[in-house]
Design brief:
The chain contains seven helices and no strands. It is an all-alpha fold and about 170 residues long. It has two domains: about 100 residues, no CATH class; about 60 residues.
Length: about 170
């Protein structure tokens, strides 16, 4: 197995181990409840960013009152709903857990998700969208590398339960 694959496997295992140590409240959640919270968080994040885009457009059209309404709604979606839902899952966690999760997520987006989306778009003739997905995949690769580099050059504290796993993730990322 290549060093990169080993790193990713270990990071994924570590992220799974970290999930066990998140919080007592998060640990007691039913699997479907956890899935519902994660779905709600994606919806709140999407709504917030979408409303910020709507606010920018409204302001460009000279409709300041509508722009402010969209911005106020975006704030509630992100800074109230999303934050409370994240807290229910025990997020964010310790830095080592957060960076490990980011490494796994960015790797997946860079190597799997966006490439798959690009291939599907190209197959149906949506070539501009395919190019967009490939560009975003490359940017996600930059994020992956930046998080991996940060993991290597920092001494992130871990909780007592995660210290051995944290050292292993850091060692395997070299």
């Amino acid at each position: 197995m290549t060093r990169l694959k080993t790193t990713l496997v270990r990071a994924a295992v570590f992220a799974g181990l970290c999930a066990v140590a998140v919080t007592a409240a998060a640990d007691t959640l039913d699997a479907q409840t956890r899935k519902n919270i994660e779905t709600a968080m994606r919806s709140e994040a999407y709504a917030s960013l979408k409303y910020l885009g709507y606010a920018k457009a409204a302001r460009a059209h000279g409709n300041e009152k509508l722009a402010r309404l969209f911005e106020e709604s975006a704030d509630v979606e992100a800074n109230h709903h999303f934050v409370r839902e994240a807290a229910a899952l025990g997020l964010p966690g310790p830095d080592i857990e957060n960076i490990s999760d980011a490494i796994v997520s960015e790797y997946d987006e860079n190597n799997k998700m966006y490439n798959s989306f690009a291939d599907q778009a190209a197959q149906v003739g949506d070539h501009k969208t395919a190019a967009l997905f490939r560009q975003i995949a490359a940017e996600e690769g930059d994020h992956y590398q930046a998080y991996k580099d940060a993991l290597m050059r920092t001494d992130l504290p871990a909780t007592p339960a995660t210290k051995p796993a944290a050292r292993e993730v850091k060692r395997s990322a070299k």
